[in-house]
Amino acid sequence: MLLGVREVVAGYGKKTVLHRISLEVGEEEIVAMIGHNGAGKTTLLRTIFGVLHPREGEIHYRGARIDGRRSALNVRDGIAFVPQGHGVFPDLSVLENLELGAHTVQKAEVADRLEAVYSLFPILGERHRQQAGTLSGGQQQMLALGMALVLRPQLLLLDEPSLGLAPFLVQRVLEAVVEINRRFKTTILLVEQNVRQALQVARRVYVIKVGQVVYTGAPESLAQMQKLWQLF
Ligand SMILES: Nc1ncnc2c1ncn2[C@@H]1O[C@H](COP(=O)(O)OP(=O)(O)OP(=O)(O)O)[C@@H](O)[C@H]1O
Ligand SMILES: [Mg+2]
């Protein structure tokens, strides 16, 4: 197990969003998290990443407790977070965005990391001088993934990477997620609204409802899928 969330309670101010939520992600797994708007998916990713601190419960990563730890430390320890709405800097070029993503990477390694991103997303190499804000939605999402990838994370937290994209681009982004997992052996916890596609790439799935897990399992069998639709 790479990541373990145990009975976590978290929220904003007096409002509790996560109600004793528990989940696990194994080494090199792709795990999908699905659930309605407001279920607490983003809140859980933020809590894992250390932007929010749980009021109760524990978060374990690589055998150590990390709940309450600052996100800067988590980044150094191999956790990367691509937020919902991706967070690229529109005024900066593709290359400048990637360099920002790599600001904690040793100088001597940056060129190799950029090369790896360009080999995965050739369009970013071709457009490295272009202003990020003028890229298409799908290309901006690739860039957001690239900004996380230059860190060579062990655990990648992805919050709705295909949000707002046309169906063929949703497919393309999810293929990229699988490729990242395969090529860099990156463990991925993926929040997705495109349930059908998410289930095609994930080894396991968690369904979240009002801050709790209501279903977990392998997504393959139709019976399970139907059960899942009902829960959803
Ligand atoms: N900064 C905040 N301050 C107060 N409440 C918040 C804040 N962010 C989120 N919430 C509330 O927490 C609950 C869970 O929000 P969260 O963003 O985690 O849901 P989600 O599952 O990611 O939804 P979506 O699918 O729409 O992204 C919602 O009721 C939301 O209004
Ligand atoms: Mg969200």
Your description of this structure?
This protein has two domains: 155 residues, Rossmann fold (3-Layer(aba) Sandwich), CATH 3.40.50.300; 61 residues, no CATH class. With 232 residues, the protein is α/β, with parallel strands linked by helices. The mean pLDDT is 92. The longest helix has 18 residues. The protein has a six-stranded mixed sheet with strand order 6-7-8-3-9-10, with helices on both faces. Bound molecules: adenosine-5'-triphosphate (ATP) and magnesium ion (MG). The site of magnesium ion has 4 residues, from helix 1.
CATH architecture of the largest domain: 3-Layer(aba) Sandwich
Bound molecule types = adenosine-5'-triphosphate, magnesium ion
Portion in helices: 25-40%
Average pLDDT level: 92
Unreliable segments of 5+ consecutive residues: none
Order of helices and strands: EEEHEEHEHHHHEHEHEEH
Distance between the termini: 27 Å
Radius of gyration: 17 Å
Please name the defining characteristics of this protein.
Rossmann fold; alpha/beta; 2 domains; binds magnesium ion; six-stranded mixed β-sheet; globular; 26% strand; four-stranded antiparallel β-sheet; binds adenosine-5'-triphosphate; 232 residues
